[in-house]
Design brief:
With 470 residues, this protein is of the alpha+beta class. The protein has a single domain, classed as Outer membrane efflux proteins (OEP), CATH 1.20.1600. The two termini are 72 Å apart. Helix 2 crosses helix 4.
């Protein structure tokens, strides 16, 4: 008989372990993106590796001031600190979910004094005298829900995937921050180049204005030439004021990105120049999707929403809980810990859903719809990643061609201005023709600075599109 009892206990234990090894709900399968990824890129199935070290990618620009600003932003940016705090929250939530695997143990203690009524309603007429009694107790309560259907495992799976998604979003925030700092920096340097060009133009136009004023006084030129010269000086000053405003706005944006007050943030002027940005390998690596933190975060959201379905389906099945309690109960403190004061209880409990099946059904459908939304978001994020790379490569290619053409235009317009100025001084051309030549040269110089900045910005965008490196 005793052997049979042991066999029954062994069978029950084996059954419990077998059930505990199962988890209701679908196992995760990576969403298919073969229909939206270009074959020429030779995409491979991606396993998120957004935490792969990318290094300080901005150092490829070999700009010490940019390096300083990036370090400042990494150390003081409030948005980056907020993103890191969200990661800590998500990881703590994952640990809370994992704690549901452990039993719940609580140590309780209580002491109370109560007065018993002398007129208690009883079915048997018994005269119970009014009394005051003391009660002292201490107990250790244990409760453990057996995860037969894998509800806790699915909840832990969902929480861990959400924590991983939060970590990927932190890397995305890091990439966005460093990219924005670089973009604003190169934009500011392009304004420096425009400011420098306009200042040279103003100096030159003021000299011409003064010279024309002398000629006007001598009656050698018509008054219209002098009026045009005054107009050109005032126009250049207005343009300079506008560019200075744009530069200050870019500086204020940089200050915010670096976590510094705009009122005390200063950057000395240094034109960007016509130097070409560093060359990024044009071949797109097959692992690009693995490095993009936004793509990794979107996929991990799919993992979490998929696990939520299993946790919701577990509500269809009975919940089995083991409970136990042991301690001491006495009417006097002195006898509380004596053997006669011992109390204990132990036993399983089972909870079977009888009503509410419709609610469970709709909740499961809601979780399935959330998974479909996450899959659609993942595909959209993948498409955006592909588009970012294609757009950046297009910008780099055509900005280079544009820079070459603008460089030729600047060289030609500078030579033409010199020739026309000499002809004007000889009296063979009008001042209006000289003004037109100088405007053309100034526009070519300003455009050269703008194109140089756009080439650097396109390079920054490509690095960001590749997940922060290559």
């Amino acid at each position: 008989m005793q052997i049979m009892l042991h066999r029954h206990a062994l069978c029950l234990a084996t059954l419990a372990l077998a059930l505990a090894s199962c988890a209701v709900g679908p196992d995760y399968k990576k969403p298919d993106t073969a229909d939206i990824t270009p074959a020429k890129w030779r995409w491979q199935p991606a396993a998120p590796s957004d935490d792969t070290p990318r290094g300080e990618w901005w150092k490829v620009f070999r700009d010490s001031e940019l390096n300083r600003l990036e370090s400042l932003a990494l150390a003081a940016s409030p948005s980056l600190k907020a993103a890191l705090a969200r990661v800590d929250q998500a990881r703590a939530s994952a640990r809370i979910s994992a704690a549901n695997w452990a039993q719940d143990v609580r140590l309780n203690g209580d002491a109370q004094r109560e007065q018993i009524s002398g007129n208690l309603p009883t079915p048997i007429p018994v005269n119970i005298p009014r009394a005051r009694v003391n009660s002292f107790g201490t107990s250790l309560d244990l409760s453990y829900e057996i995860d037969f259907w894998g509800k806790v495992r699915r909840e832990v799976e969902s929480a861990r995937a959400s924590a991983d998604a939060a970590g990927a979003r932190y890397h995305s925030a890091l990439l966005t921050l460093t990219g924005d700092v670089a973009s604003q920096y190169f934009l500011l340097r392009s304004y420096d180049a425009e400011v420098s060009a306009l200042r040279r133009t103003i100096d030159l136009r003021e000299k011409w204005r003064n010279l024309l004023h002398e000629k006007l006084q001598a009656g050698a030129i018509p008054e219209t030439d002098f009026a045009r010269a005054q107009t050109e000086v005032a126009t250049a000053r207005a343009d300079l004021a506008d560019v200075k405003r744009l530069r200050q706005e870019a500086s204020d944006t940089l200050a915010q990105l670096c976590g510094q007050p705009a009122s005390t943030f200063r950057l000395s002027e240094r034109p960007i120049g016509a130097k070409a940005p560093p060359t990024i390998p044009a071949g797109i690596p097959a692992s690009m999707l693995e490095r993009r933190p936004d793509v990794a975060a979107a996929e991990r959201d799919v993992v979490a929403r998929n696990a939520d379905i299993g946790a919701a389906k577990a509500a269809y099945f009975p919940a089995v809980r083991l409970t136990g309690s042991g301690g001491f109960l006495s009417n006097d403190v002195d006898t509380l810990l004596s053997a006669d004061s011992k109390v204990w209880s132990i036993g399983p409990s089972i909870s079977v859903p009888v009503t509410g099946w419709a609610v469970i059904h709709y909740n499961v459908n809601r979780k399935k719809a959330a998974r479909e939304e996450a899959i659609a978001t993942f595909r959209e994020t993948t498409l955006r990643a592909i588009n970012d790379v294609e757009t950046s490569l297009t910008q780099i290619r055509y900005r280079a061609e544009q820079a070459s053409a603008v460089g030729e235009a600047l060289t030609a317009s500078t030579k033409a201005t010199d020739l026309i100025r000499a002809a004007y001084e000889r009296g063979t051309l009008s001042y209006l023709e000289l003004l037109d030549a100088e405007r053309t040269r100034l526009q070519a110089e300003l455009q050269t600075a703008r194109i140089a900045a756009q080439r650097h910005l396109a390079t920054v965008r490509l690095i960001k599109a590749l997940g922060g490196g290559w």
